[in-house]
Amino acid sequence: MKRIPSLPPWLAGNRRRQVIAAAVAAVLALAVIGGGLAAAGVFSGGSSDQVAATPAPSPSPQLDSTPTDSATEPTLIDGVLVSPDELAEIQSRLPLAIMIDNLVTARPQVGLVKADLVFEAVAEGGITRFLAVFWRNKPGRIMPVRSARVYYMDWAAELDALYVHWGAARSGGPADVPSAFARLGLRDIDAFALGTPYFNRDPDRPSPHDGIADTDALWELAASNDWTGPPAIESWQFKEDEPQRAQQQAAAAAPTVDLGFGGPFKSDYAVHWEYDPDTNGYLRSQGGEPHEDGESGNQVQARNVAVVVTSVSLAGDGTSHLLYETTGSGEAVVFLDGVAVPGAWSKPDAHSRIRFFDAAGNEIAFNRGQTWIEVLSASDPLTY
Asked: Is the pTM for the entire model greater than 0.90?
């Protein structure tokens, strides 16, 4: 069992400068097509023209994540190989970055298993919240949708995503979400200003943990306002699976990973990842129970788990809102193929993609498929 070292001494070393330099190296970027028209009270960062209502779209089949002979093109967020035609269809739309509740009474969530990428951090009171990014798959129903926080917006910005939420923190201080929209120029979809077919409520769940988003309808709405792809996304490096990697002499085997968000490992928000050699992925549990999808019943599984350690502070505006240091660099550990790769993360600015580097300063290549980025404060426990 290992504990990652304390943050301040690591940051004081020369590696930090090497990491920052590496993070701004040449990366793949695609041009954003067109400027979007924004709906008054619905979208931020555009004109005040009203968005016309769009009829509910017919259900869309999900893209098959199993490679075929024609699957030769990697997608930019999760690296899964798809056919050229599928890639063109995916790139015709923008990613949806959706805020998802994780309060105990809000479980089980629906749709997390279909996300390309998931960020997890504490919202308030040791309670975590997810930013789930959907692009390759078209899952349809996602729930429960919750309110915005400023630091999640920096992670949405790096993916040129439509930021989807149900309400927002409003304080007039550094945690004020409307001010962050103006600063970042994010395209904003707030459920408070929209009804069906874009959002609905589950009558069997207590409010405010009952919000449902329809991804097909949201993409239709975006297209009707010329908010279409391809998005400007800096791709990570991806590789093929290496299930025998843990047996290599220099490898640091990591069959389990435990995270203590905001407190001890035994809390309702403690996370346990367990390596599954049959699938070369990590199965997720939280609060001592398997984390299962509320629709399929499948346990959440990640191909990669990247742990980010950063500074977290109170906003100091008379609320309990937090501020995460989302840019700069710091220590990180990436788990994949059943091994741990200690190193660093780097994100030069809000619109730059967060990247991960090993102890030698080389960028880490991820396995193709879903990645979870677990964002911890320096005081949160991590063992593996």
From this structure: no
Q: 365 with 345: CB under 8 angstroms?
A: no
What pLDDT score was predicted for residue 57?
Answer: 39
pLDDT digits (tens, 9 = 90+) for 181-190: 999 999 999 9
Question: What angle (nearest 5°) sits at the alpha carbon of residue 109, between those of residues 154 and 141?
Answer: 85
Give the domains, in start order, of the chain with CATH numbers.
7-27+238-383 (3.50.90.10), 73-224 (3.50.90.10)
The pair phi, psi for residue 88, each rounded to 5°, is -60, -40
